[in-house]
Amino acid sequence: MSLTLYDKLWDEHLIKTDDSNESLIYIDRHYLHEVTSPQAFEGLRHKNLKPWRLDANVATPDHNVPTTRGKTFYAESISDEIAKIQVVELDKNCNDFGIRQFDITSKKQGIVHVMGPELGYTLPGMTIVCGDSHTSTHGAFGCLAMGIGTSEVEHVLATQCLKISKLKNMQVQFNGELQRGVTSKDIVLHLIKLIGTAGGTGHAIEFSGSYISSASMESRMTICNMAIEAGAKVGLIGVDSITLDYVKKHSNLSNAMHSKANEYWLTLRSDDGANFDKKIIIDVSQIKPQVTWGTSPEMTIDFDADIPSAKDISEENQENMSLAKAYMGLEKSKTLQELSFDRIFIGSCTNSRIEDLRDAASVIKGQKVSKDITEAIVVPGSGMVKAQAEEEGLDTIFMEAGFLWRDPGCSMCLGMNPDQLKPYERCASTSNRNFEGRQGNLGRTHLMSPLMAALTAVNGKITDPS
Amino acid sequence: MSNSIITGIVAIFDRDNIDTDQIIPTEYLKSIKKYGFGDFLFDGWRYLDEGKLNMTADDRLKNDDFILNQEPFNKSNILLTRDNFGCGSSREHAVWALRDFGFKAVIASSFGDIFYNNCFKNSVLPIKLSKEEVSHLFERASSSPDSFEIDLLKKEIKVDNDFCYSFEVKDSLLDRIVHNLDDVDITLKDKLLIQEYEKERQKQRAWLFDYSN
């Protein structure tokens, strides 16, 4: 029988299925961070349990760490007393239970979904979970990876298993070559615009097609990362030579172990003729740079298109649209290009990898951040990305242009640390969610690619990248 | 069987895609506790000022136009809304906030997958109905918000004592709410099965266990 990649990963990890069709699946890798783990560790203590398999776990603080840490910084240096408790608590929990952590002082610390793959903790064919919805990122390696809640974090720590139901299969084919100025971020925003934020609900989305086959691991991670914004908690891509080259470069496995694994890893693809419950085929050569206008990632348009008005949408969506327009301050705006921006954020688990920083740097070299922009920040996704970028001189390009060059963390993606928008500030952001208040109370977020955000920084407005 | 019938006041949220950032903003995720989130539920809509984790509802400037600040909805325990409720972030704090406010059930035409799972771990019942059924319930709730009765064992909703709709939910998930079961306890009954699987996996996929940094 022909199987999809998701079917194969499911079968490989299945331990049992009960009468209600709920299954127990084995978890190979568990990433932890400071925000969704404290209550889980508390649960273990309460039940007098220890983690089932210590070496399956890897932890790092990322959500609420400040990004202006400099050279000597400790958990105790965090000035927000409440945030500090969480980071200190993660240190304590990892020490008490013996869990490997890249703490706030580590040169390798970073956003967990950037750090994990680059340190080789994400390997093809794994089941990977983390108390964070963007865990779908790791699906780029042919993994079954998904975000879980804190009760499930406790469950995985205690049992090395997850209790879930099998999802349906959905295939999204991206074919063709990208136009100049268009990136993986635009492709995935375009998809979300088409199918909506619930378009993938209940499904695992496998991305394939000629564009995906030639895309870098960084681009693949950006696409899988945003699967959750299309409602799919699992996004995944079959293993090929690009995957294996990345893994070879980043993992510490011995050569012997690699050759043993390679044979299996190359089977991690959907079989010809495998059955998908939903299929979507997209010609990427027709896609322009995408920018969100509203308060949901599906509220996306071509950068030069008109912002939708009441006549463009169905009656049942009018309420959603007028609420979003009011929140975003767009009642009188016709296009995105006429808007003035206040802040620029280049970073997040979606777009803070080396390729993203290279993209952004390439369009601003020798230029200056517009005087209309109050602050433009670049936040590398991890210590490793930061070091690599500095080696390439990207930090100098950004700083000479007037960007602030920060330390790794989730930063302004989610307004949990000092990097936040003030009320009504408009931000060009490379993150993944433009929800109300996401980047700070009453802040206005426009999602876009690193390239578009960098251009917006120097022009103060959204402009044509081609 | 005290957990098997839910009655009370229905609050309606006529909006699609209410994400978990709206249900509880990130500021309050800094807590290391599992309870005490009720005052921060729908924080951005419920208050006119910016809150902090160490504040309570009494310290805040309330938005009187917001449904949960109005009688009798300040005591609601059933939430009725549209499409894709609980999409976005995996934060279980969203369910904790609903639970701590007093919500026992959420009725919607669809839910975010992660949110849906999180509900059952915290005795909040998510009920999926069709769009038409939800629209009909909107009408009923608008005219008589205190007339709903949800029977978990029969899996049906009554309005004004008349049968209205039945709903589907997995028995194993429902059991967790009705009998207040803990997932870890249930799974650890299969300890030997997990150990056996792990041993085999160690043999077949050695690289997953060989790794050390």
From TrEMBL, chain A:
InterPro entries: 3-IsopropMal_deHydase_lsu, Acnase/IPM_dHydase_lsu_aba_1/3, Acoase/IPM_deHydtase_lsu_aba, Aconitase_4Fe-4S_BS, Aconitase_4Fe-4S_dom, IPM_dehydratase_rel_enz, IPMI_cat. It comes from the Bacteria. Its cofactor is [4Fe-4S] cluster. Keywords: 4Fe-4S, Amino-acid biosynthesis, Branched-chain amino acid biosynthesis, Iron, Iron-sulfur, Leucine biosynthesis, Lyase, Metal-binding. This is 3-isopropylmalate dehydratase large subunit. Pathway: Amino-acid biosynthesis; L-leucine biosynthesis; L-leucine from 3-methyl-2-oxobutanoate: step 2/4. Its EC number is 4.2.1.33. Belongs to the aconitase/IPM isomerase family. LeuC type 1 subfamily. The lineage of its organism: Bacteria, Pseudomonadati, Pseudomonadota, Gammaproteobacteria, SAR86 cluster. One of its GO terms (molecular function) is metal ion binding.
